[in-house]
Specification:
- The chain has 119 residues and is an all-beta fold.
- The protein is built from no helices and 11 strands.
- Strands 2, 4, 5, 6, 9, 10 and 11 form a 7-stranded mixed sheet that branches. A 4-stranded antiparallel sheet has the order 1-3-8-7, with no helix packed on it.
Length: 119
């Protein structure tokens, strides 16, 4: 089991920045990748970015690669999502998730943190 707690969401004006954090606890030694996803009102959840827990290799959805940066601090068991130049359409609940070694899917999820971008 891995427990995830997101933080850092809030209300920000368009063009502003936020940094989300996701602290992991539990069986973190078995983490393969950590990812950020988001779900906007009335829309399906979508992938944002992921990072290899040991390798640091990153993947992004192409539309966000220039504005969002995923990083991790293994000493703190924490992954971050730096979001710059925020747009109204970035408004969503952001979730972090964990894919364990040997797993095919992201099996553990946080409770989500709300990001609201205003004009």
């Amino acid at each position: 089991q891995v427990q995830l707690v997101e933080s850092g969401g809030g209300l920000v004006q368009a063009g502003g920045s936020l940094r989300l954090s996701c602290a992991a606890s539990g069986r973190t030694v078995s983490v393969y990748r950590m990812g950020w996803f988001r779900q906007a009102p009335g829309k399906e959840r979508e992938f944002v970015a992921s990072i290899g827990w040991n390798t640091g290799t990153t993947n992004y959805i192409a539309s966000m690669k220039d504005r969002f940066t995923i990083s991790r601090d293994n000493s703190k068991n924490t992954v971050y999502l730096q979001m710059n130049s925020l747009k109204l359409e970035d408004t969503a609940v952001y979730y972090c998730a964990v894919c364990l070694v040997g797993a095919d899917n992201y099996d553990f999820w946080g409770q989500g943190t709300q990001v609201t971008v205003s004009s």
